[in-house]
């Protein structure tokens, strides 16, 4: 409730005004028959009806307008609350640490932003208003009952206490069932995301039916949990009416006996029973409000869970006194990395210095920890032990956003985002000028692609760049990184995405970049390696050897084997 109120508080005035207007609209509607009566009386007796007619018309329009505006204000509060919950959630989700997201399911996180926040709509408005208005009326009616006959009130209160008792028993069940239903909806979203993210793989493996079944299993669970919440809600509703009916009978019995022995007037009993009759509505309203709040609190729990996930602080830290204009040096000192505390060491005591300029190639068997080094330089993760310095400053001391500003990173799977080609290119440098853009397009040999696309740079490239080839995606990723004018360029080379012509062109681009910048390439091609100023050979997370191609060919067995077997293209000719 407290958490819910923190979302509602900024919009409390609008909600209050809305509730008061709806209430005034209700009063106006109630007054209409009375005014109609005076109008008809005036008509029958031949008196002037103009005043009554104007009042009736005014009431009619006023009540309708008050209700409409009131309902709009309540709906606006609901939308505002949902928006502010989404705002907070999205801002937090995109700042989560990678280690937090590694273990989460993107579809489930998505459901929290979409489905769970929607559940706040009713809880933050209608349910709260129901609870407040209902409770207010219940208190008023009970006060009137106390005035009429405290003894009968005691009977009513006794019976009403059982509503509170059953509420204590039922409400947690409603909350639990709603939470499970929302979790199941998260699971539906997660399995859909899994299926749509690997659409071709599913088709190629004939897995449509299995995946459909997996999604439907979660959907079925959501249905069962939803039904379970609905069952508990109807039990709460029906037990409320039953309790009020029972109290009606008890009051009738006790009151009747007291009237018979002369200790209560019949008029007082009738008035009491009328109040009891009126009590049904507000009590049901309170129960409805509290039950609705359970659904909201279940959703709120899933929303606020994100608050407990570790986030990155992108601004804290101190910039180094001076930053070079071109490349920036990097040093690793006895760096260890475990992705999980109890997991194996993916890097085990790596120490290396990479100067401000030059091309460093990192090679090694699959799983040796090559990509992990790049991830640590981007500070996607902190090393388990040891120190990484960029520009002479520990990466943990850098303001994260400024550190990443220095780096251009081309991931191995070269992701392209839904949007136009231009959006994708300027993604890392939104203020890049047209000239820079054209220059980078020429460097990365993207000109033929731009010319072939119907709207050139402004052509949408599909979800995850689905309408592009692997090589095109990779060149776009490289162009995107170059446009950032990085001082440290990290390239995770894809194994076989580029044809020979494009490959040699890009090799030239990278070599040119390395003349002014620190370039680190996780290399899978011999051509990349042979041109490197230094090569690091990683094996099982250890830096096994370092040197130039000819030094390593002469001095390192693993490198020699890698060069002849794993590193692609012209291997034989380069080795001999
Ligand atoms: N986010 C992660 N969580 C847990 N383990 C991870 C994670 N990323 C990588 N690993 C593990 O760390 C090890 C090193 O991975 P890394 O991606 O650095 O290898 P690599 O040398 O780049 O391999 P490849 O050449 O196949 O790309 C692998 O065993 C991998 O399974």
From TrEMBL:
Top-level taxonomic group: Bacteria
Assigned keywords, A-Z: ATP-binding, Cell inner membrane, Cell membrane, Membrane, Nucleotide-binding, Transmembrane, Transmembrane helix, Transport
GO MF annotation, one: ATP hydrolysis activity
Protein name in the entry: Putative ABC transporter ATP-binding protein
Record-linked SUPFAM superfamilies: ABC transporter transmembrane region (SSF90123), P-loop containing nucleoside triphosphate hydrolases (SSF52540)
Annotated CDD domains: ABC_6TM_LmrA_like
Domain ABC transmembrane type-1 residues, every copy: 16-294
Pfam families named among the record's database cross-references: ABC_membrane (PF00664), ABC_tran (PF00005)
Cell compartment(s), UniProt: Cell inner membrane
Domain ABC transporter: 330-565
Organism: Virgisporangium aurantiacum
InterPro entries found in the cross-reference section: AAA+_ATPase, ABC1_TM_dom, ABC1_TM_sf, ABC_transporter-like_ATP-bd, ABC_transporter-like_CS, P-loop_NTPase, Type_1_exporter
Family that this chain belongs to: Belongs to the ABC transporter superfamily. Siderophore-Fe(3+) uptake transporter (SIUT) (TC 3.A.1.21) family.
